[in-house]
């Protein structure tokens, strides 16, 4: 028999409009999974957003306990992170962005500092972005510094139905990216079809000096009725250690309960079709039952 993994998330979200241009947002979530032996794991986030003329600023702090959610979905499992983001609108076509953050691993006290700066330029049917990123990682007794160039762009056809996109992250002070920031290249296409169908396909490669990955993804989404959306995708992951193929099917529903209360419901089913890295294919059901409060 195939092993099943099930997860239930309960989420509380509060937004307080301090002034017309200042907003405080807080969120708390809990999960129970097989990885945590059905014990409750928590995550929280608090952020302050401010708009000043042509500038938007955001301060945030978040913490995610170990074994929160599913390991293949939780990118910041066991992490505490604080940071600040700023976006300055030079004009209607150009934005300048900057971000700094400090991250701590709750299990081993490893730390990571990140600083990013970039510029985005929008054209009639295209968008181009360029940036740089500096990362300093303190891993046990080792300090790793990494600098990377970031570049990306997209182009949308005249009828708005097809968007081509690509992004590249390349280390400039060593042959390959770091473990947490590998060299990365993504090319993809999004296609809007009739009757609300949207399909996408993309190919991603990563290289951190030790492990190279090649991932192919295809998927489709479709609005069903007011507030409801269905989505499905198929992913093929290839590394030097083997290959994994899995499919996802999801359904989400948004409901306006009252003027100040929104409720979201979603359920996702993932099934491993092929995995020659393990003896048994793994399937799981992901159930989300959040309630969002807007003050």
Give a nutshell description of this structure.
With 295 residues, the protein is mostly beta strands. Helix content is 0%, strand content 72%. It has a 17-stranded mixed barrel.
Quickly list its features:
295 residues; mainly beta; 0% helix; globular; disordered N terminus
Describe the structure.
The structure is a single chain. The protein has 295 residues and is mostly beta strands. Helix content is 0%, strand content 72%. It is built from no helices and 17 strands. The chain has strands at 3-19, 22-32, 41-52, 55-64, 79-89, 94-105, 111-122, 126-139, 142-156, 162-171, 183-192, 198-207, 212-223, 228-239, 242-256, 261-275, 282-294. The chain has a 17-stranded mixed beta barrel. A hairpin with a 4-residue loop joins β12 (198-207) and β13 (212-223). The radius of gyration is 21 Å and the shape is globular.
Question: How are the SSEs ordered, and which strands pair?
Answer:
Layout (H helix, E strand, L loop, with lengths): L2 E17 L2 E11 L8 E12 L2 E10 L14 E11 L4 E12 L5 E12 L3 E14 L2 E15 L5 E10 L11 E10 L5 E10 L4 E12 L4 E12 L2 E15 L4 E15 L6 E13 L1
Parallel strand pairs: 1-17
Antiparallel strand pairs: 1-2, 2-3, 3-4, 4-5, 5-6, 6-7, 7-8, 8-9, 9-10, 10-11, 11-12, 12-13, 13-14, 14-15, 15-16, 16-17
- Portion of residues in beta strands equals over 45%
Gross morphology: globular
Mean pLDDT: 80
Judged by helices, strands and strand pairing, the structural class is mainly beta
- What share of residues is helical? under 10%
Treating each run of at least 4 consecutive H or I residues as one helix, how many helices? 0
DSSP, total strands: 17
String of helices and strands: EEEEEEEEEEEEEEEEE
Q: Alpha-carbon distance between the termini?
A: 48 Å
Roughly how many Å is the radius of gyration?
21 Å
Main beta-sheet annotation: 17 strands, mixed, barrel
- Contiguous runs where pLDDT drops below 50 for at least 5 residues: 1-11, 70-74, 290-295
């Amino acid at each position: 028999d195939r092993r099943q993994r099930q997860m239930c998330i309960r989420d509380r979200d509060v937004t307080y409009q301090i002034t017309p241009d200042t907003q405080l947002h807080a969120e708390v979530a809990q999960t129970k999974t097989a990885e945590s032996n059905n014990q409750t794991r928590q995550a929280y986030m608090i952020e302050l957003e401010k708009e000043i003329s042509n500038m938007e600023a955001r301060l945030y702090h978040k913490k995610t306990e170990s074994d929160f959610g599913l390991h293949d979905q939780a990118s910041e499992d066991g992490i505490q992170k604080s940071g600040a983001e700023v976006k300055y609108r030079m004009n209607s076509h150009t934005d300048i962005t900057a971000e700094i953050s400090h991250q701590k691993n709750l299990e081993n006290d490893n730390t990571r500092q990140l600083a990013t700066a970039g510029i985005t330029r929008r054209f009639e049917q295209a968008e181009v972005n360029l940036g740089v990123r500096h990362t300093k990682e303190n891993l046990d007794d080792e300090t790793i510094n990494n600098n990377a160039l970031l570049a990306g762009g997209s182009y949308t056809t005249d009828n708005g139905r097809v968007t081509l996109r690509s992004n590249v992250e390349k280390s400039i002070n060593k042959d390959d990216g770091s473990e947490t920031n590998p060299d990365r290249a993504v090319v993809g296409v999004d296609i809007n079809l009739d009757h609300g169908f949207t399909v996408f396909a993309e190919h991603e490669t990563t290289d951190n000096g030790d492990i190279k990955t090649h991932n192919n993804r295809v998927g489709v989404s479709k609005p069903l009725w007011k507030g409801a959306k269905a989505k499905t995708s198929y992913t093929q992951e290839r590394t030097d250690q083997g290959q994994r193929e899995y499919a996802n099917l999801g359904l989400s529903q948004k409901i306006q309960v009252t003027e100040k209360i929104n409720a979201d419901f979603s359920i996702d089913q993932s099934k491993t079709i092929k995995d020659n890295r393990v003896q048994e294919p793994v399937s799981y059901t992901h159930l989300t039952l959040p309630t969002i409060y807007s003050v």
